[in-house]
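Dear H.,

Thanks for agreeing to be a second pair of eyes. The structure we're designing against is below in token form, covering all 359 positions.
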């Protein structure tokens, strides 16, 4: 089997570690892998044991699709027999490559935004074999409602490596927390900033690093200035792979329910970093008091109570990090992610399972 993994800059910015696990796991399973990656990806981040095809990413969907479809000749020469689009924004390009090469498609959904495109792409099953993979059970159920009954739809949770035993106690007397959201100022994000204003009045030494999924966080900076938070808040510049550095923080906060599975959250849990998040019905790994402490509504007083809980009961926060770490080790293993993905490849290609031979 020869698989082409389609990636873009936005997806790799969130899922770089998961991509590495997938590539290595597939190669270890005897699958030939063509990594179709943006040319901005550092060379060290592409696995040297698989083929690497680079393309120039774009913020414009029609340009992005055209450039990706242009690699069809290279993939054809390699003999690729399945296209795996790892982000919903690449589904159109994957469909174009599938038609050009006449090979099956695996379309992966990580966000509720992907559900709206399911019906259109499921129609391609009339001409090409198509399967969908969702990163959470709620996303899988929503996709299955839109797709035809004969279109395979599976839930394949991403897997992350659980490192050796880590210490979850505060690393210093000053709490350093990462607030990771979309980077856009909305009502949900503003509730967190209002809570921070009250928290700083009581704990003036706390430091918060604002990490956004979009490059422009100017509105957040303006809000922080208005609330007199600039001495306690820093904006994290966006750079491919930078989010792995954020795992050294004492606390990870997700201020918004964005309906998106993020490996950053799973990695933080695996490292024993306590997670605070707004409840999100699309994200099944946010389990209150087991993997995270959840705010049930986007209200400043809810967030303030959670922040004080971390500061005033650090042992409880550390225990939460350990429970999440244990849950990740039992439920989000990279080997399970690779095995489930490989099973779906076999389903969509019709390749039979290989069984051990009798001695």
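And this is the sequence the design step returned. I haven't edited it by hand at all.
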């Amino acid at each position: 089997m020869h698989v082409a993994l389609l990636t873009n800059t936005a997806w790799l910015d969130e899922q770089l570690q998961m991509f590495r696990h997938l590539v290595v796991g597939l190669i270890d399973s005897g699958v030939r892998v063509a990594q179709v990656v943006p040319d901005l990806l550092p060379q060290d981040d592409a696995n040297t044991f698989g083929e690497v095809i680079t393309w120039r990413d774009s913020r414009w969907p029609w340009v992005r699709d055209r450039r990706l479809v242009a690699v069809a000749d290279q993939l054809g020469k390699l003999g690729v027999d399945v296209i795996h689009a790892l982000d919903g924004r690449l589904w159109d390009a994957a469909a174009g490559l599938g038609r050009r090469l006449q090979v099956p498609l695996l379309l992966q959904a990580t966000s509720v935004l992907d559900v709206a495109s399911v019906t259109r792409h499921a129609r391609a099953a009339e001409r090409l074999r198509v399967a969908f993979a969702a990163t959470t059970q709620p996303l899988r159920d929503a996709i299955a409602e839109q797709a035809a009954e004969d279109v395979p739809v599976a839930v394949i949770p991403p897997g992350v490596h659980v490192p050796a035993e880590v210490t979850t106690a505060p690393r210093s007397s000053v709490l350093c927390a990462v607030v990771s959201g979309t980077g856009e100022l909305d009502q949900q994000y503003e509730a967190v900033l209002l809570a921070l204003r009250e928290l700083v009045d009581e704990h003036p030494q706390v430091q918060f690093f604002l990490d956004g999924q979009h490059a422009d966080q100017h509105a957040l900076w303006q809000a922080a200035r208005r609330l007199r938070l600039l001495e306690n808040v820093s904006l994290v510049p966006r750079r491919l792979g930078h989010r792995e550095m954020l795992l050294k923080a004492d606390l990870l906060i997700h201020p918004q329910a964005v309906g998106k599975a993020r490996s950053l959250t799973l990695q933080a849990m695996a490292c024993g970093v306590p997670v605070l998040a707004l409840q999100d019905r699309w994200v099944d790994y946010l389990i209150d008091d087991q993997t995270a402490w959840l705010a049930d509504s986007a209200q400043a007083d809810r967030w303030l109570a959670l922040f004080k809980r971390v500061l005033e009961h650090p042992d409880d926060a550390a225990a939460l990090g350990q429970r999440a770490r244990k849950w990740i080790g039992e439920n989000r293993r990279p080997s399970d992610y690779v095995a489930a993905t490989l099973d779906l490849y076999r389903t969509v290609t019709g390749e039979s399972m290989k069984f051990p031979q009798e001695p």
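Two observations from my side: The CA atoms of residues 45 and 194 lie 39 Å apart. The mean pLDDT is 89.

Warmly,
E.
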